[in-house]
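Design a sequence for this backbone.
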């Protein structure tokens, strides 16, 4: 059987996939929200050459925890999240997960809608009346440091605020599993740190199951309970670290530095092999 794969550029290609899609969203065994078993995924580029994005990835995310997936650019992190969210199918292996929502790498806010109308779009599409949707959005805006900016247009907001609006939109999807794709990748270092502190506070107030993708090893260790380190493409899990340090954590904590060194070493070893 051949599966049509839609490329990010919108061109359809034939993939050399031979297995039927295997993704299920029934309750996942063992207290997990995500379970991937030997998942591989390849693309076909414009010239017809195969690009192996992920190879034999097995990974679990515990319900109620924050799993960070860290790896160099191009190692298949976005592909992994799209598989979890059902936006793509694996070529082989199995993907089992709870219903998941993707917060994409770019905020993709609609410029003509106010901040709160952007954040509540999923509610409106689900048929929730505008006034009620705005009430729910406004309440989250207040909790997440956006109070007073409900009516602002996206171009009137800073990068950090736009990411917070996108995060509120993700929360309001009502899905139990949040997949965040490099949420702070486009921000400057100072705003990035503020946003990490803010996200830590948000998770402490209301624990969620999160898969957080980042190329920043320290960010992964500061925010997550567990960190999976992927090799350069094709992405494989080369190590998994457990972070027990209580929150909030800082990049300069001795434990964070020690774990960072461990993760960087496994990453360097995976390049060498
Ligand atoms: P990351 O998010 O870690 O940067 P991606 O999952 O976006 O990595 O991509 C992994 C690899 O797959 C990259 O080499 C990328 O160029 C390639 N790739 C991603 N999407 C496509 C596509 N639609 N068609 C062809 N190659 C792709
Ligand atoms: Mg990516």
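Sequence:
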């Amino acid at each position: 059987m051949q599966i049509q794969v839609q490329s990010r550029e919108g061109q359809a290609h034939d993939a050399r996939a031979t297995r039927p899609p295997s993704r299920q969203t029934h309750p996942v065994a063992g207290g997990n929200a995500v379970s991937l078993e030997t998942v591989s995924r390849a693309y076909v580029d414009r010239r017809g050459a195969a690009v192996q994005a992920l190879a034999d990835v097995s990974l679990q995310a515990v319900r109620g925890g924050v799993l960070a997936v860290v790896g160099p650019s191009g190692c298949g992190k976005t592909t992994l999240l799209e598989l979890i969210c059902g936006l793509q199918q694996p070529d082989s292996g199995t993907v089992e997960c709870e219903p998941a929502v993707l917060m994409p790498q770019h905020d993709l806010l609609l410029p003509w809608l106010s901040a709160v109308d952007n954040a509540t779009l999923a509610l409106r599409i689900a048929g929730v009346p505008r006034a009620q949707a705005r009430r729910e959005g406004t309440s989250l805006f207040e909790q997440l440091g956006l109070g007073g900016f409900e009516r602002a247009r996206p171009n009137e907001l800073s990068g950090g605020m736009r990411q917070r609006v996108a995060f509120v939109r993700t929360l309001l999807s009502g899905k139990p599993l949040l997949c965040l794709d490099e949420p702070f990748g486009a921000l400057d270092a100072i705003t990035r740190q503020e946003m990490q502190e803010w996200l830590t506070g948000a998770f402490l107030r209301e624990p969620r199951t999160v898969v957080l993708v980042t190329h920043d090893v320290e960010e992964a260790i500061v925010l997550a309970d567990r960190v999976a380190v992927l090799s350069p493409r094709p992405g494989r899990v080369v190590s998994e670290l457990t972070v027990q340090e209580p929150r909030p954590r800082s990049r300069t904590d001795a434990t964070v530095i020690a774990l960072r060194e461990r993760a960087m070493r496994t990453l360097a070893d995976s390049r060498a092999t």
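The longest strand covers residues 32-44.
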